[in-house]
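Bit of a strange request maybe. I'm writing a small parser for structure token strings and I need a real example to test against, not something I typed by hand. Could someone generate the tokens for this chain?
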Amino acid sequence: MSAVAIDLSGVVPLATVEGEAAADAIAEGLVAGGLPVIEVALRNDFGLAGIARIAARGDVVVGAGTVLTVGQLQRSLDAGARFIVSPGLDEEIVEAALAAGVPVLPGVQTASEVQRGLRLGLDRLKLFPAAAVGGLGLIDAFAPVFPKVRFMPSGGVKPANLADYLAHPSVFAASGSWIASADRVAAGPEAIAAAAREAVAIVEAQP
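Reply from user aminoacidic:
Good idea to test on real output. This should exercise your parser:
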């Protein structure tokens, strides 16, 4: 079973949404920039409301990130989340997401965790925190051992190394926290759109 059945490829923006105005700016910017997808991190009290507000628009694919419990998963789905991302590999979260029929990307950083993901039926996993655990070097090491597994690196990905990550055959997507960073949200939708356009251009330049 694949862990991803919707349009999660290339770059998946990641943001902690601080309020309604931020949610609106992020959604407007991503749509204008041609990258209508967002992982909303459940790192503050507005996380679920942010998912609900963006999902209600209908023009952005919204997922929940930093999902730590099955309860958070269920509340995220109720709010309109269409995919689930967690920082680590929690079997209960994975099984609950699969039972609900939604894509789930648990975080891994060791061979043992990749093997656990495979046993759960996943072939796409989040590599987190990518830069801290070796980035492309670790992916290179995993590739011949786990040839059917594809990764979404998260943590330390930026425009300067995005192309290098996406060029790797074992990478299906990269997490993009810079696209809707706090500074860009404060600057407004066009700042987010500009970052989204840059990311899309890098994706489209891949052979």
